[in-house]
Amino acid sequence: MTAVIDPQATLETPLLADNVQLIGGEWVPAASGETLEVINPANREVLSRIPRGAAADVDAAVQAAERALPGWRDTNATARAGLLFRWAALVEENAEVLDQLESRDVGRPHWGPSPLAGMIRFIAGQTDKVQGLSLPTYSPDVLGFTLREPYGVVGAIIPWNAPGPMFTNEVAAAIAAGNTIVIKPAEDAPLAPLALAQLAMDAGIPAGVINVVTGLGAEAGAAIPNHPGIRRVGFTGSPATGSTVMEACARNLIPLHLELGGKSPQVIFPDADLATAAQAIATGITLNTGQICAAGSRVVVHRSIHQEVVERLATAMQQVTVGPWHQKVNMGPLINGKQHGRVMGYIEAGRDGGADLVLGGDTPSGEDFGEGYFVNPTLFDNVSPDMKIAQEEIFGPVLSVIPVDDEQEAIEVANGVDYGLVASVWTEDVGTAVRMSRALQAGQVGVNNALGAGVIGGPFGGYKSSGFGRTMGADSVLNWTQTKTVSLRGATRPVN
Ligand code: NAD
User: Fold this and answer.
1) pLDDT at residue 12 is higher than 80
2) What pTM was computed for the model?
3) Is the pLDDT of residue 342 over 60?
4) CATH topology assigned to domain 265-455
5) In this predicted structure, what is the pLDDT of residue 356?
6) Gap between the Cα atoms of 415 and 412, Å rounded
7) Is 293 a catalytic residue?
8) From the CB of 297, is ligand 1 less than 6 Å away?
9) What percent of the chain has pLDDT over 70?
């Protein structure tokens, strides 16, 4: 395999310093002085160290965000937009460095042009278009209208699988609305978020508007929704942690949105373009080593084309090359040992449950794979809908094929899980596409499209246990505001 980047080369960047987090515009260690190692999942070597932040650090960050709030909230919205646009420009200039940081941290090979600057620009464009309503009144002496105001100091907790997009998505929208924020990146992949925060400061976003506390979920993470100074939360991660975060928000009576997991179905009808469907599904389940919440992990296929689909999927998945991120491969390792154990456990459950293992199910061996958390693309056939591998999110490159007899059964199987994040339908028939688009219980439905790609500004979020609230759409900024109704009494008739 050809090395495209020298993996030994230190990533010399002024955007990152070892063992610091951002509080009130200062790069500081944890109050406790403790640190955590950030590991390269391809070889288990230490990439960097980060502060092991905890409640004291979150408290300092909330105080810094409170100090920054009045000035930021009262900065006119066009000026705030300008700063976000400048941030986007710097992110674009540093796209390669950011991409490499994310690759090293997550272990994924380069996967195309960075979406980050575009994501910030999309939100920046909304910043000075946050509008209230004028309201009818009972008397001409009264004007009625609504104001959309920030919550104040808000919090966010993000996962490791796509740290750059998760960071920009939450932070840009929250601060565009005039909030100041305390965010905790995942301990497994904090480097791109820290660099993005430095770029935001370089762009002129004032100190204390964005605060990044690094550390473990149970320590720094838990301290965010439990802090009485936090007025709203955005959480992306697993349903179990989402539920814990929501309990803390309930105790403090603050709102939140939850972006949780998925078990997304790919429903294939006999009239579909099978070659396109199989290729897109194979790419979708192996992209980022299957560690994508939207990944289509269940193929629900009409029995009449079942064999052909399995053969096409096996061929496409066999072509997926596996290796360390710096090589020209399609798929890197899983993020850590825990995730590797989890994925291998599901593969064993598939075998024990009676599914037919068509491809993979093992780890690759050889010099390139060494100590890394690699697993081969894995395809199971004749999976029954109630099996563990058909019900639970694996978050790995494991695809389950479930044959069905008709459209009604396809709908029942597709909807027969706790999750409802994304669903895809493969058909050339408009009628089938319309019926399925309505019937599928998911926040996003793709027709002849595996990951819901191709749409600009589509609101993103889940049905059922995949969470609630929507990000990334036209309401991204509005979601971080609360509505105030103002009734303004004045004398409309001159008083003599
Ligand atoms: P996770 O829930 O273990 O961790 C997510 C974040 O929460 C991390 O920053 C972690 O440190 C923190 N955390 C852990 N325990 C906490 C606690 N008690 N209190 C507060 N914070 C805590 O999830 P993960 O393994 O990092 O990510 C994988 C999950 O994320 C999958 O289920 C995946 O589907 C989901 N995900 C969803 C979306 C979406 O948009 N719907 C996007 C990406 C990932």
Assistant:
1) no
2) 0.96
3) yes
4) Aldehyde Dehydrogenase; Chain A, domain 2 (3.40.309)
5) 98
6) 5
7) yes
8) no
9) 96
Cβ atoms of 65 and 227 closer than 8 Å: no
Please report, for the chain, the start and end positions of each structural domain, with discontinuous segments joined by +: 21-260+470-483, 265-455
Supply the residue whose CA is at minimum distance from atom 6 of ligand 1: 159
What stretch of H or E contains 27? strand 26-28
Q: Which residue's CA is minimally distant from atom 37 of ligand 1?
A: 260
Segment 189-235, tens digit of pLDDT? 999 999 999 999 999 999 999 999 999 999 999 999 999 999 999 99
Task: Tell me what the pLDDT averaged over the chain comes to.
Answer: 95
Burial class of residue 429, CB neighbours in 10 A (0-12, 13-18, 19+): middle
* pLDDT tens, position by position, 169-190: 999 999 999 999 999 999 999 9
Say whether 187 is catalytic. no
Which atom of ligand 1 lies closest to the CA of 186?
A: 9
Measured from the CB, is residue 219 less than 6 Å from ligand 1?
no
From the CA of 170, how far away is ligand 1's center (Å)?
A: 14
How far away, in angstroms, is 29 Cα from ligand 1 center?
A: 24
Facing residues of 148 across strands? 483
Residue 303 Cα to ligand 1 middle (Å) = 36
pLDDT exceeds cutoff 90 at 1: no
- The type of residue at 437 is S
Assign 143 to helix, strand or coil: strand
- CATH topology for 21-260+470-483? Aldehyde Dehydrogenase; Chain A, domain 1 (3.40.605)
The single residue of 293, 371, 392, 412 carrying the catalytic annotation is 293
- Read off the pLDDT of each residue in 313-322 and give the average, rounded to a whole number: 97
Distance (Å, rounded) from C-alpha 364 to C-alpha 322? Answer: 8
